[in-house]
Specification:
The chain is an alpha+beta fold. The protein has 20 helices and 30 strands. The strands form ten sheets. The chain has a six-stranded mixed β-sheet with strand order 7-3-2-12-20-21, with no helix packed on it. A hairpin with a 2-residue loop joins β16 and β17. α1 crosses α2, α3 crosses α4 and α12 packs across α18. The longest helix is centred in the N-terminal third of the chain and has 32 residues.
């Protein structure tokens, strides 16, 4: 069949139009790909070519107020594997397992995963020696990335406060967790390009994104005082084998915590080696217990502020007990203290005397001051896990509850609450929020990014009342039950505490938490120190016997460290604690006969030597004071002719 020219032309025209349409579609598609999808496709291709090795940032250091590093970092390389680049997975797994002391099977599973890169668990944060061994293997697809791990240069020093960080440098406990966001920084990386055969593409430059290091955290802690506290707690732990120990040192005028420690403690680097209840509980802020006589400071301050007592003019007779609503409350001293001024009531820590003060105040007024001093609520310290203690509900406070509360029984408080409350009682009457983080600092520029300043909560008592409290508590140390906290040359005030522990709703026998809280200088306090010893063994469980000398040792060395000058105008230590040794002045007996000295040496032993009837020499000489029962050496000879 013959096709006409017209038909041919129509067919050619249609074909041409279809061709134009096809080419138009192709051009549009190419233009769309070129101009609209080009960047996306290029990025996608580069992502297929790219190989990225991450770089961890340096976690910010934690330093004390003087710049001493308490938590820092040490270099610890990490092994990265890019599965697509591994030529022989079996051989690679075997060689890595041999160097890293890992499982060949586990490593093989990891390096055959369809992932861009993987970390070998046994190759994380390894030593530089191990990293060199891995490099020397020359394995394709295996790289060493720069990494770091947390390092605590002082071991278990300040462990509960600092807390610790995990293997990924994430804060897990303590300040490491509290300020994790600020400390951790931002990750960086180095990115290079390789083709499908894993050969580096030299026409494309490596892309390096530096990590942003975390901020440094400066604390209120003074490592010099912290070292003194740690030393004394170590000594106490060895001496008394207690169930626990707590110590806090604070500036009473600002709320800055200068030292904080407790036992049992742990090494943050090896926190896995101890039970969780050890590192989970920062006892100075977490634990709650009856305070005992240290709580009498609140009753004293309230009574003075309300004008309910004159410490030196009013007298109180203590028969050794007091009856309240049918209950008999005993004084710690059998037979009582007899007639005393109320200043002596404070010095002697006389329970019946404080019951009298509590009754004069009444429950509404006493509990108002207890709450004003911060008990029954958290102090707000910037540490995790703070407790708030337990107080009687006012509608459940009867005469007996009022009486026991007045001397620190039947209430539950935390150590940090006691330190904050005493600080308010002696600093002029202002209650401060304790704090331990002072500043956040940019490590590159030194710029202070965040700064905590003292936060005054409220005025609790007047300056005049605070002055009277300081005077009374200084006499407790100089003349009363806190004598073992006395520091020669420094005016120290304080209060003892001895509290029975409660188990299953009943008081335990011969198991006490003994404590002492002190401050100095007594006329212008710069330091408050609290120490509690839980169930000390092999000793009389009194705060004045066990805890007071620990506070005295901490206080003396800390004051000297802080540059506080000794002064002569301190209250003389006129009376010693009943457990203190009795000191006897050695008489001068040179020239006396044996018969004459028999009536003199009643409280001292004699070691005699020599012939004759007259003392010709003695050691030590007369006028020296020795402990009662000490030995004096006497040398006898013949009386010289005149």
């Amino acid at each position: 069949m013959r096709v006409s020219n017209v038909t041919v032309r129509k067919r050619l025209t249609i074909s041409l139009l279809i061709g134009f349409l096809i080419f138009f579609i192709i051009d549009v598609r190419l233009g769309y790909v070129q101009f609209f999808l080009g960047d996306w496709l290029t990025d996608g291709a580069e992502n297929l070519w790219s190989r990225e090795i991450p770089f961890e940032p340096e976690r910010g250091e934690i330093i004390d107020r003087n710049g001493v590093a308490l938590a820092t970092n040490m270099s610890a390389p990490t092994v990265y594997v890019f599965p697509r680049q591994v030529k022989d997975p079996a051989e690679t797994a075997e060689k890595l397992a041999a160097v890293l002391d890992g499982s060949k099977e586990e490593i093989y599973k990891l390096i055959t995963k369809k992932e861009l890169n993987v970390k070998i668990p046994d190759g994380r944060k390894i030593s530089h020696e191990k990293a060199s061994e891995v490099r020397d293997l020359g394995l394709s697809g295996v790289y060493i990335g720069e990494d770091s791990k947390r390092y605590y240069p002082f071991g278990d020093y300040l462990s509960h406060v600092l807390g610790f960080a995990g293997i990924d440098n994430q804060g897990l406990m303590g300040l490491e967790l509290q300020y994790d966001k600020e400390l951790k920084g931002e990750k960086g990386s180095v990115q290079f390009y390789a083709d499908a055969k894993h050969n580096r593409m030299n026409d494309k430059a490596d892309d390096y994104r530096p990590p942003v290091d975390g901020l440094d955290l400066k604390l209120t802690i003074d490592s010099r005082i912290q070292t003194i506290v740690e030393r004394e707690l170590d000594i106490a732990e060895a001496k008394y084998n207690p169930d626990g120990l707590i110590a806090i040192a604070m500036n009473p005028n600002t709320g800055e915590v200068l030292a904080m420690s407790s036992r049992p403690d742990f090494d943050p680097t090896n926190f896995q080696d101890v039970a969780p209840e050890v590192f989970n509980r920062n006892l100075p802020v977490w634990s709650t217990y009856e305070p005992g006589s240290t709580f009498k400071i609140i009753t004293l301050a309230a009574a003075l502020e309300e004008g309910k007592v004159d410490l030196e003019e009013e007298h109180f007779h203590d028969p050794g007990y007091v009856k309240v609503d049918g209950a008999t409350i005993h004084c710690w001293k059998s037979g009582g203290h007899g007639d005393q001024t109320f200043l002596e009531v404070v010095q002697n820590s006389c329970n019946p005397g404080f019951v009298e003060l509590g009754q004069r105040l009444g429950k509404e007024t006493l509990f108002k001051y207890i709450k004003e001093f911060g008990f029954g609520e958290k102090t707000g310290i910037d540490l995790q896990g703070e407790g708030k203690g337990i107080l009687f509900s006012l509608d459940r406070v009867g005469p007996v509850e009022l009486a026991t509360t007045s001397f620190g029984q039947g209430v539950s408080v935390t150590p940090i609450q006691q330190v904050a409350a005493l600080s308010a009682a002696v600093n002029g009457g202002t209650l401060y929020t304790p704090f331990i983080a002072k500043e956040l600092i940019d490590p590159l520029t030194g710029e202070v990014v965040m700064k905590n300043t003292p936060q005054a909560k409220r005025k609790v008592i007047s300056e005049d009342t605070s002055k009277e409290v300081r005077y009374a508590l200084e006499n407790v140390v100089a003349k009363g039950s806190g004598g073992k906290a006395f520091v020669d040359g420094y005016r120290v005030g304080g209060k003892t505490g001895t509290a029975q522990k409660v188990k299953d709703g009943r008081y335990m026998e011969n198991n006490h938490i003994v404590s002492f809280i002190g401050f100095a200088p007594a006329d212008k306090p710069e330091l408050v120190v609290y120490v509690a010893v839980d169930n000390p063994k092999g000793t009389i469980q009194f705060g004045g016997v066990v805890a007071a000398p620990i506070v005295g040792a901490i206080m003396g060395d800390s004051l000297r460290t802080l540059g506080v000058e000794p002064r002569k105008e301190q209250v003389e230590k006129e009376r010693k604690d009943w457990t203190d040794p009795v000191m006897v002045e050695v008489p001068n007996v040179v020239g006396m006969s044996k018969r004459e000295i028999q009536e003199i040496f009643v409280n001292l032993k004699i070691d005699a030597s020599g012939e004759g009837d007259v003392v010709v020499k003695q050691t030590p000489p007369g006028g020296i004071k020795l402990k009662e029962g000490s030995t004096v050496r006497l040398y006898f000879g013949e009386k010289e002719e005149e």
